[in-house]
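Attaching the record inline, Q. Sequence:
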Amino acid sequence: MFSLANRRYTGAKTKLLESIDESILKTFDYKDKRKLSFFDVFCGTGVVSEYFAKKPQFSHCILNDFLHSNFVIYQGFFAQDSFDCKKLESLKQEFANLQAKNIKENYYSKAFGDKFFSKNDSKIIGYLRDRLDKLLETKAINKQEFYILLSSLLYSADRIANTVGHYDAYRKNIALQDRFVYELIEPLKLTATLEIHKEDSNLLAKQFVAQKRRIDIAFIDPPYNSRQYSRFYHLLENLSQNKKPKLYGIARKPEPENLSKYCKVGAKETFKDLIESLAKICKVLVVSYNNTYSANARSNTRLKQYEIKEILESIGKVQMFEYNFKPFSSGKSNLSNHKERIFVCQASIK
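Structure, as predicted:
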């Protein structure tokens, strides 16, 4: 079964979890505390939320990301609603016995066959996606079972996709083999209360301010450069929503949507606006950002270290920690001495 971390994702923090925790503890020692809340503002893969949700000190975790595919995955792994394990296993066996020769061409096979997947694999993926919608519509499965099965499809497809870890392009001149195997995810068993959102982070923070929420720790890991996640993972977005939009270009992308301001020239002002909102409701703000300033233009970070520190210092006391971290590279960037920087700020504005 797939665990939450079993996916390829740009900027994933799986290997930095202990470093993040260590940085927080040097500034805010929570070991003897209980019933703490944790807000993962740009949740991404969800591994940071998983890490803290498993700690006994944290009783409430808030997950947010505006990608629909990530929202589906959080619902599949984190939501604690009831589901029938035997039913899921039975459907898994049904899906495992599918034969591409018995499946008609569909939207996904026409769009992605012999590109991101073999023709046969894409036919099966497309059939399964429509089948899940029908199972939900006929109430053969409940909403939680739907999210688990759909998350399983996303993970199973991503595992064998003909990419270098994202969907900005596929590898060409490769004879694609039939490799698709449908496997289930393993939903998390957590005691913490989970709250899942799919919102613009700045707008959600303002909503929380209006609600007079009180949050202990906010973890902030925004996009670093001009590469839009909604474009990087357009295929998973398409598959998760199943709207079957018109596609364009070699990479078979739909019209742009869900574009982040953190990837644009106004990133500094957008970040400042977020921090000022969070400072009104959070005790501790933790910001993760890297130092990619010498790569190609698309990979260079939008925010500089002094800008992050300056903005955080305007709302509280700041400490910065630095860790070696292997960066994402499309193969065209020469990145050396790469660091992930973690800023921990004890907010004093309320």
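Strands lie at 36-40, 58-64, 193-197, 215-220, 282-290, 316-324, 339-347. The radius of gyration is 21 Å.

More tomorrow.
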